Amino acid sequence: MDIGESKVDSVFVLEPRGRLDSANARSFEERVVAALDQGESALLIDFAGLDYISSAGLRVLLMGAKRLQQSGGAIALCALNPSIHEVFEISGFLTIFAVHNDRATALAAMG
Amino acid sequence: MLRFAEEIMLLLLDDRDGSFLPIPEWSMQCALAGAVLMDLALEDRIDTDLESLILVDKKPTGDPLLDPTLERVAASSDVHGARYWVENTASYAEEIREGALARLVDSGILNREEDRFLWVFRSRRYPTIDGRAEQEVKLRIMGVLLSDEIPDPRDIVIICLCDSCGIFNELLSSRELERARGRIDQVRKLDLIGQAVSKSVWEIQASLAMAAHPVY
């Protein structure tokens, strides 16, 4: 997995690509934590390049969302493929995260 | 930090006399199995998705409560789903329960007392010596149930396990439980192993209900 990152206005965008599972959840967590420690308060995770997510990946998202909730920040996700969307639906993560169809829609909603 | 199996055992004991709460045996077995699997997941030894429970690292954790289950997962030549491993591990629940209780006794949290009924039947009770650990677990649970905050993974696990073995019926009044039901349902879905535990428990409950009230 490689992870792209960019900043669009006030929104920090992380773009994990490939598979997000126990093999790389820790390195993804480090990137999320680093962004939050730098003071980023609006985090968008763009799933356009992500093919697969496991429970280990879901836990990292939960940790990031919890930290942002505690600091009054915001987190959103976009561009989930159908199988990842199904994981989010079954695991109830759709009740926790704002999920948008694509990056442009997400940025407009977070702006 | 206590393992989930130890936390569940604390919650399964009646605070008044240290006897076991009247929880169906299968529910308790599945909850203990889920507790071990969830600890293995948080120790990065296994991972799950909607179909499979995957071995990540077969290196022992050094914890005798967890390593026998890790060994069985590692020895399996086939990949199975979380539910298979909940039910497989549930058949070793007695060992997990005894291990968890022995550790709680050794660490000075519980005392072990043997009673005899009619001079023949033995029963064991585990009165609490130090109630701080149990209190901390209960506070964590109530903190999640009474707020809209995003729970952390450990809190999700313990809420899944409590719900699957009906501990909330003992922890909360019926009115509190009614009010918290939506939140419990939301939180317990957040862990895929927790979902597998619930499904195993419900399926057995459903088959017992069918056996008691057959439809002809």
Could you write a compact summary of the structure shown?
The complex is a heterodimer of chains A (111) and B (216). Chain A is an alpha/beta fold and 111 residues long.
Outline the structure in words:
With 111 residues, chain A is α/β, with parallel strands linked by helices. In chain A, α1 packs parallel to α2. The N and C termini of chain A lie far apart (28 Å). Chain A is globular, with a radius of gyration of 12 Å. In chain A, β1 and β2 form a beta hairpin. The model of chain A has no long low-confidence stretch (mean pLDDT 95). Chain A contains four helices and six strands, in the order ββαββαβαβα. With 216 residues, chain B is mainly alpha-helical. Chain B has ten helices and four strands, in the order ααββαααββααααα. In chain B, α1 crosses α7 and α2 packs antiparallel against α7. The model of chain B has no long low-confidence stretch (mean pLDDT 91). Chains A and B meet through α2 and α3 of A and α10 of B.
Keywords:
heterodimer, A: alpha/beta, Transcription Regulator spoIIAA, globular, B: mainly alpha, two-stranded antiparallel sheet, 10 helices, 7% strand
**How many domains comprise the coordinates of chain B?**
1
> Which term fits the overall shape of chain B?
globular
Mean pLDDT across every amino acid position of chain B: 91
Determine the strand fraction of chain A and express it as a percent band: 25-35%
